[in-house]
Amino acid sequence: MSNLAHYLLNRARSHPVSPAVTGNGRTLSFAELGERVLRLAGALRGKLGLADGDRVLICMENQPEFFELLFACWAAGLCTVPVNSKLHPREVSHIVGDAGVRAVFTTDRLVADLAPELAQQSPAPSITVVGSAAYLSLLNEPPARCVERAPTDIAWLFYTSGTTGRPKGAMLSHRNLLAMSWIYSADIEHVEPGDTKLHAAPLSHASGLYGLPHLFAGGHQVVLPGFEPDLVFEAFEHYPRVTMFAAPTMVIRLLQSPSVRAAHRGLRTLYYGGAPMYVSDLQRALEVFGPRLWQLYGQGESPMTLTGLAKRDHVGDGSADHLARLGSVGVARTGVEIRVVGDDGHDLPTGEIGEVVTRSDCVMAGYWNNPDATRNALRSGWLWTGDVGSFDEQGYLTLRDRSKDLIISGGSNIYPREIEEVLLRHPAVLECSVVGTLHAEWGEEVVAFVVTRPGTKVSGETLDELCLSHIARFKRPKRYLFTDALPKNNYGKVLKTALREQLRAGA
Questions:
Q1: 68 or 422, which is more confident?
Q2: Chain-wide mean pLDDT for the chain?
Q3: Coil, strand, or helix at residue 285?
């Protein structure tokens, strides 16, 4: 069986009455979920007229319908394009055009802003609001049969920003996502029917991806509308054997909540990733949650699956070795090869810093409609991650820097050039450079250095308004620093390292 939908439908047959998805005050059993998946699949092929491999974009806040749409697309032989609901409508529109999306599913709150942007696409995709009469009519269509797919057929286009600021669609096949799921079971935990997967982070990314191995094994998906510490703690108490993904900022907010306490009855595993985690914060989290933490390091191009720091690796005596281990991202995952190489692609000795490269069945097929980016990222079967790190003697990998100037704030990837291009639209801005600086809660904070044209002025408030009209709110700079000139090398390239040093020195 190559189609991922088969594995869900197997659970619908073997555990029909087990809870599958809970959200918005309603719980679907596996039998009910399987029925809805096949009816939606029939509607996608029949009523909406979609064909093999067509792309379907899902842009919604956390809703339980996410999973029935995801698996319905696969059952119908289609490719899903889940995107973060916090993206600016123009960013979503670009993805729709780049991927050639035929159908869009969204929500009441988002459709008013999305529809005008998507109407400019040619051809414009159909738009269906989840929960509307039009959506419910799709569930009244006759159920389809799950189609067969090849292992290499693309199941999920995962859009991740590139160094040019333009999003790139990592092509994840059915085989990629199945391998990701198997490795989850091999490394993190064995899931039994009735185990709980709590979703408080966006389903379009890490949380939703690791919903797959849980559903394949009969796990119960509990979907929260968003991240609220009180709701999370209530779920820890109410549901059995809870596993949840949290970006480091979410872990910190849990620790700062008045509801936090030293034991949480239902919590089984709290896995975190997507940004650096300070060792001091990890130590506090271990005091509160105990040995339930699991760190993962992955990318959209190798979803969730490069290295991991297991629960047992978090436990220690506070010695220098233990703290160094907590500062790492762990060891290579099962079935995953990890190397640290120089510019020539040759392995570097233990302790030396170089680029992290990986090879496994999780690695993407390439970037959608972007052969140049694909050639740069995939070389001789290896994915060049753009992350810089080093191994210790025991094979633990520590990330040192990011070769592509990526900023990770609150678990979200932010690329400076995208912001710089927006700032340069203002007539008063002559030059600008965007960098990240350390932030105790968010991991990193976005800072823009701005040089104005002679005789002109512009305020940070005005530049903030400009950014908010073009890019997602979480990407905008938190500080604007006006300067007479940017530091440059002999070739005229801005020295971002020098700007970061200025921020670290408080200059």
A1: 68
A2: 92
A3: helix
Contact 282, 314 (CB under 8 A): yes
- Condensed to tens digits (0 to 9), the pLDDT of residues 41-62 reads 999 999 999 999 999 999 999 9
Amino acid at 58: I
| Average pLDDT over every residue of 364-374 | 96
Whether residue 34 has pLDDT greater than 60: yes
Tens digits of residue pLDDT in 212-232: 999 999 999 999 999 999 999
Omega of the bond prior to 123 within 30 degrees of 0, cis?
yes
- Mapped to the 3 state alphabet, what secondary structure does 169-232 carry? EEEEEHHHHHHHHHHHHHHCCCCCCCCEEEECCCCCCHHHHCHHHHHHCCCEEEECCCCCHHHH
Backbone torsions φ then ψ of 30, nearest 5 degrees: -65, -35
- Give the tens place of pLDDT for each residue, 285-308: 999 999 999 999 999 999 999 999
Instruction: For residue 401, name the pLDDT band (cuts at 50, 70, 90).
Output: low
Measured CA to CA, the distance from residue 108 to residue 128 in angstroms comes to 10
Q: What's the rounded Cα separation, in Å, for the pair 216 and 80? A: 18
* Cβ–Cβ < 8 Å for 467, 480: no
Q: pLDDT tens, 450-495? A: 999 899 999 999 999 999 998 999 999 999 999 999 998 644 568 8
Residue spans of the domains in the chain: they are 1-13+26-149, 174-404, 407-505
Distances from the Cα of 434 to the Cα of 88, 357, 414, angstroms: 19, 26, 10
pLDDT value at residue 446: 94
Write out the CATH class of domain 407-505.
alpha beta
Considering the segment(s) 174-404 as one domain, its CATH architecture is 3-Layer(aba) Sandwich (3.40)
Distances (CA, A) of 436 to 65, 345, 424, 449, 451: 36, 28, 18, 11, 18
Burial 291-326 (b: 16+ CB within 10 A, else e): ebbbbbbbbbbbbbbbbbbebebbeeeeeeebeebb
Q: Judge if 1-13+26-149 and 174-404 fold alike in CATH terms.
A: yes
Is residue 323 within a helix (H) or strand (E), and if so which, with residue range? helix 320-326
**What's the CATH fold of domain 1-13+26-149?**
Rossmann fold (3.40.50)
CA distance 507 to 505: 5
Integer Cα distance of 345 and 392 in angstroms: 19
Q: Which two tokens stand for residue 356?
A: 């992290």
- Pairing mode of beta strands 220-223, 19-23: parallel
Residue 160: the pLDDT is 84
Q: Return the SS3 of 281.
A: helix
